[in-house]
Design goal:
Elements lengths: L1 H5 L2 H21 L9 E10 L5 H16 L5 E8 L3 E8 L5 H15 L11 E6 L6 E7 L5 H17 L4 E7 L4 E7 L1 H6 L4 H11 L7 E4 L2 E4 L9 H5 L2 E3 L5 E3 L4 E7 L4 E5 L2 E10 L5 H18 L3 E6 L3 H30 L3 H23 L6 H30 L4 H27 L7 H37 L12 H19 L1 H17 L16 E7 L6 H14 L4 E9 L14 E8 L2 H18 L4 E6 L3 H6 L7 E6 L8 H8 L7 E3 L5 E9 L1 H6 L4 H12 L3 E7 L2 E7 L6 H7 L1 E3 L5 E3 L4 E9 L2 E4 L2 E8 L8 H9 L3 E6 L1 H31 L4 H22 L6 H33 L6 H35 L4 H35 L5 H5 L1
Parallel strand pairs: 7-24
Antiparallel strand pairs: 1-3, 1-4, 2-3, 2-28, 5-14, 5-15, 6-14, 7-12, 8-9, 10-11, 13-14, 13-17, 16-18, 16-19, 17-18, 20-29, 20-30, 21-29, 22-27, 23-24, 25-26, 28-29
Helix pairs in contact: 2-11, 2-14, 3-4, 10-11, 10-12, 10-28, 10-29, 11-12, 11-14, 12-13, 12-14, 12-27, 12-28, 13-14, 13-25, 13-27, 15-28, 16-26, 25-26, 26-27, 26-29, 27-28, 27-29, 28-29
Length: about 1000
């Protein structure tokens, strides 16, 4: 095959050029994003039910919805949480579920349930979670002093949002902090009482004046006209001029009996930029869009906004494209330095400028052609797939060096250049294919991990498979063809004599090799001791998801645990920011209820979320300590989480589940266990360290009790009392003004007086029109009630979060505690997910090792020789662990990728070394004058000399290409540094292993008979 292709170099060259041209065309169409567009198998149903208690939301809304959704296909878990005015149901599906169909199914079931839900309930929102839901940036819209904030909200909703949505690549624009205008009506109680009227007269007048005649038409000959009442109101002035009839029959304008004005609707949440109220627009990209093209467009639009709307300030924050740019920059750096150092090392070892030139052509060619495979597998260019490409570059250089060195060696042996190219490739073809297959055998099974880890590994596995497959094609076809073209007309034959640099290295190798062979038993014992010692270093390393990177930003999540309003919440956040004034460069806060359409977390008025960007690491650490002490001193009831700001990776891998949660249900009822009964039971709870779950958290509340005896005595209907309470304390909407999709509510203005005063000074009418104080028919008391009601597919539960280091050790105690109280109990949480994932990972790695063994056994036609390759791996891993420990790095995602890169190169070197030993043994076996033992010694020594140069060149090139990252700074360097440490440590030990351990283990473990006799 190689001979056939090399006989047509022009055709092969033009074919590769065509592939490269097609790859560049495809590259322009590939989407560029931060993360692959993964369907997270979760759907959240959000319920907003103003003025409803957790009990009412659970009983009337969430319970019917849970019963209706329990039959969904692929549903694994269902959890609901009912709070004051809000409720959520989180549905978790199996990863094999088609989420498009599941989303449609959930919506259809919600539509069917609509008739069984309360009439005044707005249809529940159904939110599907996707990696593209993570915003790529946030646009801050800050009104200047004196500008109407409602008008700025309308500008953001009607203009800015639409202009940003028109940018190519934008899928969704979400807004928080909008303010809406309402018309407030405040009845004058004294004037109404003097005229013998009530506020109901005012309400009825406004309602009747805003009536509409839906669907009524009148026929006029051959024409038909739809009727519209001309008495509809549009503005506060229209309402003020409405005529109202008094009890004596006099007609007066409504403004004599009530104040009517435009006002801003009471806010349940605010967005702050710094200490100023503002709006935030989050920008979400399409899955097929290119982030590196979208962000410049967005920034250019902001510049236009600043010119077009000078009454507003704009700023761009939390730009997630920085991570992607860092990954692309690192790949470019690896290619640049890889090419430079490959050129330098090859020139140093081979002394011919044409060989580095061939490497310089093959590297970018392989990389560009790999993007064709991206296109056919519908992959995007993202951090995951880029890390896969970076992973494959090390082996790509390795393959190129091995092929070139082998062709050069064949020329040195006196073969014609064409035959040297053919023989040089054919000799190493089997070994290189085996090495690539073993790398894929280690890596690709990780795709079958359950959960989001497996979904992410798919992109990386395809990227690795793409670049390694292409690199084989380039190494077997393009490299020898280029060699033939560049050296074909050269009459000068490369000198067999090695340069002085390599001669010194060779003499050093020979010296160490002779010492090892003179005491083989001691050497193999030392290697045997190094394996467990190296692996034991892992116990000294800390483990984490992503490496510690220099983050100058932090987030603060606060739950005040007090029944405060949104305005008080905002005041507390502003006071905290004033304490920190001057220490941060940027701050933004989401206070109270968030208006984002895609927000799937808890929406509570008592919560606040702050994002802070500091000047440097030192000021950040100092201010974080100040925040802790400030909150502990001033708000001891508050609970808060303070830490580094999450990037897209953190948001993707974060789990809403507790680490270890003990749930229990009352087997005799379907209600939460009362506080009076639960608190004594909790004092006997068997965990050493635990905290209350949401179903046990309490909040202060006021409980009204109707006095039925007095209501019956004075003939006051229950609905009269309830109606008056809703007008006093709720948001009572008289009617709505609807114009072209814009809705302006007309609301009764809520009084700011204390509720006790309002109860005493508000009258209700009995059946005989006699008025009585509302307080006569109500009793109230302050109580601590459960803040949330939690439930799963089995019904209402309460729970505790276990904080012990070994929570599973108390499992039997939890069951005993529950049985004595007639409770059903179960354990759940991320602990069990992690345990399951770890078991899967161990199983998959065992399968990978077996696949690796089978491939090598087929390659070497031996059951023993593959074990030598397998035993080289722990030595390299130990070296990687040692360097990670020396430099204070951790075991994380990036260092794990580094281990795979290093193991791929190590396996490659070991396979080629054993393959060369086998070929030399076969050569010596054919010579009768050489005994099997002597032939083995010669093969081991000869293979070491032959493979010394490519092994050293591969390791040195890879290490030197990565070293600049160690001394670099910035986000990208911080991410890649653990990968670099793992590769450098593993290859340093791995090179020594390939040079000395492989021949040593071969001598001990492979039978010393002739290979032909062994195979027969």
């Amino acid at each position: 095959m190689v001979r056939f292709l090399l006989a047509r170099p022009i055709a092969v060259f033009m074919t590769f050029m065509a592939l490269i041209v097609f790859s560049f065309i495809v590259l322009r169409t590939l989407p560029i994003s931060l993360l692959p567009p993964i369907d997270v198998p979760q759907i959240v149903v959000k319920v907003n039910y103003p003025n409803a208690s957790p009990e009412a939301i659970e009983q009337n809304v969430l319970s019917p919805i849970r019963e209706g959704l329990i039959t969904l296909n692929g549903l694994e878990e269902m959890d609901s949480k009912a709070g004051s005015e809000v409720g959520t149901i989180r549905l978790t599906f199996d990863y094999s579920t088609q989420m498009e169909l599941a989303y449609i199914d959930v919506n259809e079931k919600i539509d069917r349930l609509t008739n069984s839900l309360p009439e005044d309930l707005v249809r529940p929102e159904v939110i599907r979670i996707n990696t593209s839901d993570i915003p790529v940036a946030r646009v801050q819209v800050v009104p200047k002093e004196g500008v109407d904030e409602v008008e700025v909200s309308q500008l953001a909703e009607n203009v800015l949002k639409k202009r940003i949505e028109q940018l190519p690549g934008v899928s969704l624009v979400d807004i928080n902090g909008k303010k809406n205008r309402i018309i407030s009506v405040k009845p004058n109680k004294e004037a109404l009482a003097a005229l013998g009227m009530t506020q109901q007269n005012v309400i009825s007048t406004i309602q009747s004046s805003n009536a509409d005649l839906d669907g009524i038409s009148v026929k006029d000959g051959q024409f038909r006209y739809y009727l519209r009442l001309a008495t509809r109101v549009d503005t506060p002035d229209d309402i003020k001029n409405l005529p109202i009839r008094t009890a004596e029959g006099a007609i007066i304008p409504l403004n004599k009996l009530a104040e009517v004005n435009y006002e801003t609707k009471e806010m349940l949440g605010y967005h702050l930029y710094g200490e100023q109220e503002s709006l935030v627009i989050t920008v979400h990209k399409q899955a097929s869009a290119k982030m590196n093209e979208l962000m410049p467009e967005l920034k250019a639009s902001l510049e236009l906004f600043r010119v077009d709307y000078p009454q507003v300030d704009f700023d761009l924050t939390q730009d997630q494209s920085n991570l992607l740019n860092a990954a692309i920059s690192n790949l470019e750096t690896s290619l640049l330095f890889g090419g430079i150092f490959a050129f330098a090392v090859l020139f140093l070892f081979m002394k011919d400028y044409r060989l580095p030139l061939i490497i310089g052509v093959s590297l970018p060619s392989s990389l560009v052609i790999s993007f064709l495979i991206f296109y056919f597998f519908n992959l995007s260019i993202n951090i995951i797939s880029l890390s896969g490409l970076a992973l494959g570059i090390g082996m790509l250089i390795d393959n190129a060096i091995i092929v070139l060195d082998n062709i050069t060696r064949k020329r040195d042996e006196g073969l014609p250049i064409f035959e040297a190219c053919v023989e040089g490739v054919n000799e190493v073809m089997g070994a290189l294919i085996s090495s690539v297959m073993t790398t894929l055998a280690v890596f690709i099974p990780l795709v079958f991990l359950s959960g989001i880890s497996g979904a992410l590994f798919f992109d990386q596995a395809v990227a690795v498979a793409a670049i390694l497959s292409v690199s084989l094609g380039v190494a077997f076809i393009l490299l020898p063809m280029l060699y033939l073209l560049l050296f074909g007309k050269s009459k000068k034959i490369i000198e067999k004599e090695e340069g002085p640099f390599f001669r010194r290295i060779l003499s050093g190798y020979e010296l160490i090799y002779s010492k090892i062979t003179s005491s083989r038993k001691v050497a193999i014992l030392c290697f045997a001791i190094l394996i467990p010692l190296g692996l034991a270093v892992s116990l000294l390393l800390k483990t984490e998801g992503l490496p510690e990177i220099e983050k100058l930003d932090a987030t603060l999540e606060i739950e005040w645990n007090e029944p405060i309003g949104a305005l008080e919440n905002k005041g507390r956040v502003v006071a905290l920011l004033k304490e920190l004034q001057g220490s941060y460069e940027q701050a933004e806060s989401d206070v109270g209820v968030r208006q984002f359409l895609l927000f799937d977390g808890e929406n509570s008025i008592q919560q606040a979320f702050l994002y802070l960007l500091f000047k440097d690491e030192q000021s950040k650490e100092q201010k974080i300590a100040d925040i802790r002490s400030y909150l502990n001193d001033n708000y001891p009831e508050a609970s808060f989480i303070l830490g580094d700001a999450p990037n897209a990776f953190d948001q993707l891998f974060s789990s809403s589940q507790a680490y270890y949660e003990v749930r229990w249900k009352d087997l005799s009822s379907k209600e939460p266990i009362s506080e009076e009964e639960m608190d004594p039971w909790l004092s006997q709870f068997p965990a050493n360290s635990w905290e209350r779950g949401p179903g046990l958290q309490k909040e202060a509340s006021v409980v009204f009790t109707l006095r039925a005896d007095k209501m019956a005595t004075y003939k006051v209907p229950v609905n009269t009392i309830q109606d008056q309470i809703s007008k006093l304390f709720g948001t009572y909407t008289i009617t709505d003004i609807r114009r072209f999709g814009e809705i302006t509510p007309i609301n009764l203005k809520e009084s700011n007086d204390r509720f006790e005063y309002l109860l005493r000074n508000t009258n209700v009418s009995a059946s005989d029109s006699t008025s009585y104080a509302l307080s006569e028919f109500l009793e109230y008391e302050y109580e601590n009630h459960y803040k949330y009601i939690t439930a799963d597919r089995g019904g209402i539960y309460q729970s505790a979060y276990i904080l012990d280091e070994e929570p599973e050790a108390k499992r039997s105690d939890f069951f005993s505690w529950a049985q004595t109280k007639d409770l059903g109990v179960e354990m759940t949480g991320q602990y069990f997910k992690d345990k399951e994932n770890l078991q899967q990972l161990i199983g998959i790695l065992l399968i990978s090792v077996l696949l690796l063994y089978f491939i090598l056994a087929a390659q070497f036609e031996s059951f023993i020789q593959p074990l030598i390759v397998v035993f080289t791996l722990p030595l390299g891993i130990g070296g990687a662990f040692l360097v990670l420990w020396i430099f204070g790095a951790s075991l994380n995602v990036m260092s794990a990728i580094g281990l795979v890169v290093m193991l791929g190169i190590m396996v490659n070197d070991a396979i080629l070394k054993i393959d060369t030993i086998n070929r030399l043994r076969e050569k010596y076996d054919e010579i009768d004058s050489i005994s099997p033992m002597e032939g083995l010694e010669k093969a081991l020594h000869g293979a070491g000399q032959i493979r010394l140069k490519p092994i050293l060149m591969t390791s040195i090139t890879t290490i030197l290409a990565l070293i600049p990252i160690v001394f670099s700074s910035g986000l990208g360097a911080d991410l890649q540094r653990p990968l670099v440490y793992a590769v450098i440590g593993g290859l340093t030990i791995g090179t020594f292993t390939a040079l000395y351990f492989v021949p040593l283990a071969y001598w001990f473990f492979v039978p010393k008979k002739k290979l032909k006799a062994l195979s027969s």
